[in-house]
Amino acid sequence: MKVTIALRLPRDAASVAITRQILGAELEVLGVEKSITEDIQLMLSEACSNVIRHAQDVDEYTVSAELVRDKFVITVVDTGNGFDPETAGAGADSPMAESGRGLQIMRALADDVRFINRKRKGAIVCLEKALKFQHDSPGELLIAP
């Protein structure tokens, strides 16, 4: 079973909160445990915020979210200049560092993180999180064999 939601969003700070609320509502309806929903919302916020802050000369970006059995996969795609994920978070070693904290948060909360740099064509951030559902929730019933 696979369920997909795709959003094309303006590169505007308001889009972060809207996307967070839409996906949070989806997870709530499915009956995903609250702590996992909060982790997903925070990862999503960081990925979208990075597009807003860093993807210059981009008017919009896309977010897709897929429920694949008991896994939630978020993909954020922009068409900016791209970035090197190895050096982008290098300054975040200090607790007071501004740059790179979002990447560290995503890495800490996701079960799997992939950053794809498409130099001068943008970046793709893919975040995966295993889901746990409340008993007898719609999500639990959907993934049942």
UniProtKB/TrEMBL annotation:
<dbReference type="InterPro" id="IPR003594">
    <property type="entry name" value="HATPase_dom"/>
</dbReference>
<protein>
    <recommendedName>
        <fullName>Histidine kinase/HSP90-like ATPase domain-containing protein</fullName>
    </recommendedName>
</protein>
<keyword id="KW-0723">Serine/threonine-protein kinase</keyword>
<dbReference type="InterPro" id="IPR036890">
    <property type="entry name" value="HATPase_C_sf"/>
</dbReference>
<keyword id="KW-0808">Transferase</keyword>
<dbReference type="GO" id="GO:0004674">
    <property type="term" value="F:protein serine/threonine kinase activity"/>
</dbReference>
<dbReference type="InterPro" id="IPR050267">
    <property type="entry name" value="Anti-sigma-factor_SerPK"/>
</dbReference>
<dbReference type="Pfam" id="PF13581">
    <property type="entry name" value="HATPase_c_2"/>
</dbReference>
<feature type="domain" description="Histidine kinase/HSP90-like ATPase">
    <location>
        <begin position="10"/>
        <end position="128"/>
    </location>
</feature>
<keyword id="KW-0418">Kinase</keyword>
